[in-house]
Amino acid sequence: MKINNTLLLVFFFLTQIIFGQNSNEKEILGKITADSVAVEGINVLNSTNQRGTVSDRDGFFSLFVKEGDILVFSAVNLVTLRRKVTKGDFMSNGIQIQMITKSIALKEIVINENSKITAENLGIIPYGQKKYTPAERKLYTATSGGGIDGLLNTISGRKAMLKKEIVVEKKENSLFRLEVLFENKYYIESLKIPVDYIRGFQYYCVEDARFAEALNTKNKTLAMFLIVSLAENYNKTIENEK
């Protein structure tokens, strides 16, 4: 009997302690923003009592805390923030939490007038990584799976069609580079290409493997050397057709 009374007394005191601790807790309201915009889905954890919540679509949250508790605010794309609850927080209408967006750490680079900024030299992707054009990416997707998909793509002729698309794409890219490289004035005055034949001459040039390679490697000196002989041959063709 005495044991039971003792257990009841211990239980009573424990209940009083727990109740006394919880009675100090009050609901606190807050709003979370990042870059001055309210953010939804931020995890808010009271690390003292391990209770948590999540901010709503307008960035608001509410949580029961007491003075001295540590609140932890975290999200995948934001820098984790810790904040200690103060007495003044209970006197305000709500606390404002400003979080910072995570950024990619970039290596220091030196840029001069000849520097070309790419994803590689910024450290976003590794050097030497294969870069696919849209047409090449389609072909890779159609052939990388192997198995029945690869067989069906071969039977249906899809692979052959995509290979042709790559050839056309490369020629279009070469034409674009050629258009940027020379003005019409150069074709007419220096190469003696009739104005109505300039477009046809451009197609004629990109069909030449060496010239196309010079364009793709941005070797302007070689391109200017080759285009002279190509113009001579093209003009002869025009004369023969007349």
Task: List its salient traits.
alpha+beta, Immunoglobulin-like, 9 helices, rod-shaped
Describe this structure in words.
The chain is an alpha+beta fold and 242 residues long. Among the domains are: 24-99, Immunoglobulin-like, CATH 2.60.40; 182-241, no CATH class. 49% of the residues lie in helices and 18% in strands. The chain contains nine helices and eight strands. The protein has helices at 2-23, 87-91, 134-144, 147-156, 158-181, 184-190, 198-206, 209-216, 220-241, and strands spanning 26-34, 37-38, 43-46, 51-54, 60-65, 70-75, 78-84, 95-99. The strands form two sheets. Strands 1, 2, 5 and 8 form a four-stranded mixed sheet that branches. The chain has a four-stranded antiparallel sheet with strand order 4-3-6-7, with no helix packed on it. The longest helix is centred in the last third of the chain and has 24 residues, at 158-181. The chain is rod-shaped.
CA distance, first residue to last residue:
125 Å
Helix coverage percent: 40-55%
* Order of H and E elements: HEEEEEEEHEHHHHHHH
| Number of H/I helices | 9
- The CATH H-level superfamily of the domain at 24-99 is Immunoglobulins
How confident is the prediction overall: mean pLDDT?
74
Indicate the CATH class of the domain at 24-99. Mainly Beta
The global form is: rod-shaped
